[in-house]
Amino acid sequence: MYSFRTSLGPVDLAFTDRYGGVSAAPFDELNLAVSGPDSLEAKAENHRRLLSDFAPGVPYADLYQVHGRDVALARPGERPHADGIVTTDRDVVLLVRMADCVPVLLADPDAGVIGAVHAGRRGMAAGVVPATLARMRELGAGSLTAWLGPSVCGKCYEVPSALQEEVAAIEPASRATTSWGTPSLDVAAGVRAQLDREGVSTLDAGRCTRESPDLYSYRRDGAGMSLGAVIRLRGAA
After folding, report:
1. Pairing mode of beta strands 84-87, 71-73
2. pTM over 0.90
3. What InterPro entries does the annotation carry (predicted)?
4. Residue 194 to residue 130: CA distance in whole angstroms
């Protein structure tokens, strides 16, 4: 169910893999996508299984992800169009989805502020990560820690040279080369550079989605399959 799971003080967080759900092939098994041809019933059960294991009885807040830089305040039961989500509420799970894009989980446990970001190529270039950090600091965050989850690596994310130049002009750290020698982008490297400039401590919990059969990859598998990144600030004991 998880490719990575940990806690920092009252903060629990995890990145999922594709196992432990009920979706049939080719979506097998723990598909958390919002849209796509997979069974709605199967996806609902997958979400139920994840949440009952990660945070039993706790509601979750998520997004319609649009590859932009907007940041929403978490409200369970609503699904705003945004790519960053933050909260100071306890016992609310924040959920973002990905299948090659970079998931970023953020926390200041002492201040009681958490966030989650979906940072694809366009979102990284647009600055969704700095925008989310700014919103968290408005809520009182000071010393922040970031966890980067699985995403497609620079050796696998081939792009046209013109697109590489466009994105690298905004974030030079994202420039990369595929393992076969063609222009590519390393979105995770771009995100790490942004976090470094913001003074955020970063922990890498990622692997390449395209290279890892236990993870979903849009480039390898096509659309309609999503992993999840979840984070929660536990309530008082």
Report:
1. parallel
2. yes
3. Cu_polyphenol_OxRdtase, Cu_polyphenol_OxRdtase_sf, Cytotoxic_necrot_fac-like_cat
4. 7
